[in-house]
Each structure stands twice: as C-alpha cells, then as structure tokens.
Write a structure and sequence with these properties.
This protein is mainly alpha-helical. It has a single domain, classed as minor pseudopilin epsh fold, CATH 3.55.40.20. Helices cover about 50% and strands about 10% of the residues. The chain contains 8 helices and 3 strands. Strands 2-1-3 form a 3-stranded antiparallel sheet. It is globular and about 50 Å long. Bound molecules: fe (ii) ion (FE2). Fe (ii) ion binds next to helix 1.
Length: about 210
C-alpha cells in the first residue's frame, strides 16, 4: 500500500499570521506531498521493501546507502511529526514535563533560549529537536533530512523545521522570527508530554 500524506491536525488558517494558509498550501500540500510521491515511486519497483512500514523503509534505506530514498522517506516522517508538534491553541508545559524541563534547563525560558540558539545557529537546512536522553531533555539538531528514526537512543519529543521552505513565505529570511513566533505561541506541549514515554518515533509512522 502506498504511503499517504497525513491530514493536518488543524485547519490551514488556524495559526493566522504565525503560519499562513499559503505556507501550509506549499509546505504540506507541495513539499510534504512531494516526499510522499517520490518515496512511493521509488518503492514501486522495490519488492523487498513493499509492505514495510515507513520507519522500516527509512532504516533500510539508510543501511543500504540509498540516499535519495532515505531523504524522501525520512522527510515524510519528519514532517508528519512536525505537524503534530504544533497547536493553534497556546499551551504551556505542565506536570512531569514541566518538572523535567526545570531539572534539565533550570526553567522553561532557559530551555527555549537553548532551543532557539540551536535552531537559528543550525547551518542551512535541517531540523531542531528536543529529545529524551534517560531522564534528561536535550536540545540538538540534524542536517537536511536526517531523522531520530535512525539514531539509536534519540527519542524525539519536539521538532521545528528550519528548512527555508518552512518560513520563507511568512518571515522571508527571518528564521529567528519564525522560531520565536512558534515557540511562543504554537507548541503542542500536550504532544511533547506524550512523547516522554519514549515512543515518539511511532507517532509519525505509518503502515506500508
Ligand atoms: Fe519542511
């Protein structure tokens, strides 16, 4: 069965000026759809991977050194996870998540500063991540399509897409403004808290 473009968990105009519906038209409707189409085309003649889940395809492509298939399939997963990390309703971390953020960073504000520094400082295209490392929460980033799916022990909690296509229509070259706006107003902290179970990878997987 071919992979599909997951529906957005909110309307395209739900974020108003923070993320415009035009950005969703391109980012979800063109870029994410393009990764789905290219992955499906590549798998049409690949009997070995037919029927495998998305995360199995990503891992197999990485192991086999099939760089294009890895990039396309990893970008399906990365974007599927990213949409879930966003919420048009402003939220705050609470409970166990809030306590872990304080333990790991001192405060939510210190954590957001560290995340922003990593995300703005990341050279060229990629993804900034909050990941679970034992009882700690850490900030990191990965280049291009690289993904926690293939990094043993890197349990994803939250991501921001820092490819230019994620923000250029709304913020032009202002990556920092995009990051500030989303961190302040659009993080789905309930989803981040769910991922403290270490099963974040499974939440953007799909059957093949
Ligand atoms: Fe993207």
């Amino acid at each position: 069965m071919p992979f599909i473009l997951p529906d957005l968990p909110y309307g395209k105009d739900a974020f108003r000026e923070i993320i415009s519906s035009e950005t969703f038209d391109y980012h979800h409707g063109k870029h994410h759809q393009g990764y789905v189409d290219k992955t499906n085309n590549a798998l049409e003649d690949n009997g070995e991977l037919s029927g495998k889940s998305l995360t199995e395809v990503i891992k197999a492509a990485r192991e086999a050194g099939e760089i294009k298939l890895f990039n396309w399939s990893a970008q399906i997963w990365n974007h599927s996870f990213y949409w879930k990390c966003l919420s048009p309703d402003r939220q705050n971390p609470s409970g166990k998540l809030a306590a872990m953020i304080e333990d790991s960073f001192g405060s939510k504000s210190d954590m957001l500063d560290a995340f922003k520094e990593e995300a703005t400082g990341h050279f060229a295209s990629g993804w900034a991540w909050l990941v679970l490392d034992g009882d700690d929460i850490k900030v990191t980033s990965l280049h291009d399509a690289d993904t926690p799916v293939v990094h043993e022990g890197m349990k994803p909690l939250f991501t921001l897409d820092v490819w230019e296509h994620a923000y250029y229509l709304d913020y032009q070259n202002g990556r920092g403004d995009y990051i500030d706006a989303l961190l302040e107003n659009a993080v789905n902290w309930e989803f981040v808290a769910q991922n403290l179970d270490g099963k974040g990878v499974s939440r953007a997987d799909q059957d093949g």
